[in-house]
Batch of 2 targets.
Target 1
Amino acid sequence: MKKVGKPVFLIVVLLIAVMGWLTVCGVSTRYGDIKTTKIKSIEDIRWGIDIRGGVDVTFAPADGVEATDEEMKEAENLISLRLVNLNITDSELYTDYAKNRIILRFPWKADETDFNAEAAVQELGSMANLTFREGFEYDEYGRPAGTTLENIVLTGADVQSAEAVYTQGQNGTTQNMISLTFKDSGKEKFSEATGRLIGQQISIWMDDTLLSAPVVQEQITDGKAQITGTFTAEQAVALAEKINAGALPFALVTESFSTISPTLGLGAKNAMVLAGAIAFAIVAVIMVVFYRVPGFVAVIALAGQVILLIASLTGFFTLFPAFTLTLPGIAGIILAIGFGVDANIITAERIKEEFANGRSLDAAIDTGFKNAFSAIIDGNVTVIIVAIVLLGAFGPTDSLFARLLSPLFRVFGQSAAGMIYSFGYTLLVGVILNLVMGVFASRLMLKSVSRWSFLRNPALYGGGKQA
Amino acid sequence: MRQWNINFYKNRKIYFAISLVLVAATLLGALILGVDRDVQFRGGVLLTYSYTGDVSSDAFAAAAQESLGRPVTLQESTDLATGRQNFVISLADASGVDAAAQTALTEALSAAFPENDLQLISSNVVNATIGGEFFRKSLVAVAFAAVLMVVYVGIRFKRISGWSAGLTAVVALLHDLAIVFAVFVWGRFSINANFIAVCLTIIGYSLNDTIVIYDRIRENKRVLGASVPIEDLVCRSVNQSFSRSLMTSVTTCSAMLVVSIVAYFYNVTSILSFSVPMFFGMVSGFYSSVCIAPMLWTVWQKKKAAKA
């Protein structure tokens, strides 16, 4: 097998150290008050709601209404609109179309101590309150006021549908617009209002939030209207979706609902980080005592493995989203610390045996790695398989792994506990990194240090002293 | 570490007996003590309030009962980390307990005990349908993972008659799952999502151990040829892998032991029902991979040879 240069060990250690520094501290530039993150730091870990505190809620249409997929999509849009209104910016929201359920998780905000989660959930699930109002008067908070507050032209119940459409102008430009269709109940009212308000505005509101305030061009009698303006295609689609959400004929009720206070989780996180540090120290001591040089290399590889695992949680580059880390997720990292030296142990034991077979140091290392490989691969594949099953069973129904396993799980709907998904992720990434660091990086490091003259005594590798 | 030379095959009946006793004790324990499914799996309501000072549990239960309009079950606990007292209100049925009812309850209780700084620290309200579905989904996940394992081992170990290897490995797995279950039963943990996570992890972990040993049997068979009696071949392989199995178990189990101890002292109960069963499951996984699966396989192979 090819020789590995003496400095390779130092290079690998340096790379791990640099990676560790980048992962923990990140890279960002500051220009005045504006901070631009280039590489995310450990601060960017998204803690799960069992650590930060927060709300986990499952909505379903009230009174067992059989909603269509479109209606569920609209209901999801309605909730995401209301989340913005409640100033909840960090949330996980997805719809389980097989079971007509909407799952929402959002954390407590750092500065919010008496946030009323129950009230927020009630508001999120309440019947959509879409109104078309006369004029466009509003108060200092941007809520309808005066004539606009008093005169409601029509409500969401009068709307049949809204759709984003576009027309091609003569000079080749496209104009995006929203095409509205009213129900019979709305046709008359809209005709009356548009007849009376030509040249004035009719404003469209969701709850107390303005969606749009178009100017009436002409009386509309056939119940079909267009909202034109300088919309981009995305804006037009978003507005149409919001109006459709307002036409939803049902309220949402909570099927399951859990809250965790922030005080409960924070101490737990610190305790788990402490446990992780102790576990790492114990594993490091065991490895060095029992396996000497290969053990020492294993500890460095393990450090690299933990660093890369953390990087996979923050996303590292701003391009990749952070992955939510929960208490079971941290337990998964600690499990990976315990299990992460497995590949090194298999190899170190093999190297010992090769010495017993009378091989020289270099031959023992080469053959040891070669013989250990198939066992390492076979063993890790089993853990990868269970990790994928875990991710599929406990993850959001729209995640990659859930889709992969959907033929199996589709009749069951989503999970009533979101914390385990994070464990599946740390388990999966941990095992894959174990292959990278425990086999590839460890081989480079061990072959490199075994060429250092003061480390050429086979006793340091578990061989007989005389060799 | 030294060369091992344990005659596992000679002791096989002792191992089988120990395992059978353990599994029987588990089933017996489950029958006597009963198995408690968590709110996540059966549906229901679990509300945890923390408070300071003295509150009579009867008065608290009465106030909760009045607000909710039905009888409640109350449990008391102390948070070692903060020193505050907790009341856990549980209801078997979640119907009617929506966000509004919960707000009303918290207000009513705060009004009834204004001196005690009452705080709702966690709430869990699960509709029975969702809970039941989630439970079945979890069981399917465990069964599915086990099937995948048999298939994988069967394919990878064709050379040493794969299907018998796969099936004996799965017997060892079921044994480990029984031990995990035993910890939940005897430790009075309710069966929750952690249980499923631990079961799945143990399936992967225990099989990993078994596979490393089977891999060795496969390798030795190739090197030594068919002339060596099968029990010698297996014993030799198990002994060769023994250090590795032991050391990996030591590092992994010590990591989980640390988590259990820290979680116990800091009162992180949600992790305790994860790390403690995981610890025992891993000990069992080590034991079954070394003492059960290869020995069962040997017995099977010998039976087959005797018939032929």
Target 2
Amino acid sequence: MTDDDMLLNARFAAYRNERMTDVTPAGPGAVRTTVRKRRSVATTVGAAVAVAFVVGPAAGYAALSQDRTPPPPPATSTEPTPPPTPAPSLSPTQSASTAPAVPDGRITSADLLAARPDLPAWWGDAPCQRGGRLDGKAPREEGNWLQSADYADVDRDGAEETVAMIGCKFNRSVVQTQVAVFGRDATGNIVTMGQVLTSRPIGWIFQVDTRPDGSIRIEVGDREPAGDPGSAAVVRQWRTYGWTGEKFAQTGGPSGFPAKKGLADLRVTATDVVYGPQAADGSRHGSTTVTIRNAGPADADHVLLSLELGENVRHEGGGWTDCLEAATNPDSSPANLGCLLDRIPAGQTRTLVLGVASSGAKLTQVSARAHVTRLDQQRNPVPDVKEADNEFHFDQR
Amino acid sequence: MQLSMPPRLDQPPPSDAAGKVPEVDFDAFYQAHFRALTVQLCAYTGDLGHAQDLVQEAFCRAFSRWQKIVRYDDPVAWVRKVAWNLATSRWRRLRTAQLFLRRQRAEHVPAPSLDRVALEAALALLPPHHRRAVVLHHLADMPISEIARQEGVAEGTVKSWLHRGRAALATHLTERGAQP
């Protein structure tokens, strides 16, 4: 031991002796009272809990620090510690043997459905709500719904948080999913801790599995499985995420999907449609510039472009002559304008200026979506290297 | 790759060879450890009242699952980690920040010694990692291996934090002591 060590030990010993006399324990009775109150609140208000936990963040210098270190996971220790002196319990009838765990951030599905929690941002420009009520099951047309709720002590402070998987459906059939974590503040209100993952641009989220160590495992896929002719080729992976102290980050599992041979990576973008004034027949006219790129490595024999603009928008104008076939499909789900394109070799880009017209002054939807699908020579759909950039969200007004 | 999992927070480790559950009374456990834990958190946070709140909350959480925690090899390690996690959880600080204005705690304690004031002032100048390592080692008397386990880092990292923390602390104390 160095002189500095001995000096510090002496200083800390003196500090300990002095400070020990300053401490005024609230006492084990106060512990019982607090826990009993929480239990009572949890019983009468479902999972709601009034956390009597009070932290004065401004008084101590730790609160002023820029410490971003994630709290370490609590774990049992093997450190040999002298056992506390056994003593008769002062109040055996108040034994904690039946005391439930502190509810804290454990929020039931019913409470989440009733709470209208604030949701973290959805990926891209998806027209998904960040607030409002969650449905208990997938809506028929559009809206958010709670897919699952799991529980884990993600920040390792001894109390559990709620890990929710929430879906958003829009344009009648498009689904985006996010995994978000919620807790409760000191007054029992539901607070949003953060977002773990969105299904886009990854592809798909199948399920969530919380782990005893506070980590969150999520099964992801490289594309949407249902209704996708290439669903047999969906690649599934489990990826692990954890709380870093200020956000969630991946801590384990693969970070990407394996490269696929013989596939093409189609990408699409589109500009907003700005409709002109109403014409004599009540219609309004506009256009969008659609850019489709085949990033390879395979060539695409055919590409089907679908523009989802609502039921009352039709295609018009010479721009559509670049399509082998063009169609307005108001009865499809979702309603769309289709354009079948011929071969786009790897590395090439196709730009289309496509005219559209609404049959009335009002649009049935302001959010629009473009989607491209690679077709083989028999015009059967072929999976893409990365499905997420096969779609693009834009607006019309 | 299969990652190893630390023991679950609310589940006991395998019971000892005899399969016995030690009889540890919660009240005695509280009285035996509350003050020492509070002093450690006080040295880290710089605020005695704040430290008392953190440790009290950790004991509340321990009481809620006492029948499990009491079976741990070292129940006080569980309470200590929860208290330190509460102290270092930025999110917890943020979501409870609103309560600050409601909390007006008067600290009625004897006038502090100059040495105590100097040590707390010097500790406040350390980066949080270094301060935690120094407090856990010199005040909680934890060996480097145990600190590494609690902090979830390699022992070499803790040694580095300790080395740098001690050097900075010595410098700050010397400078302060040299001031007129």
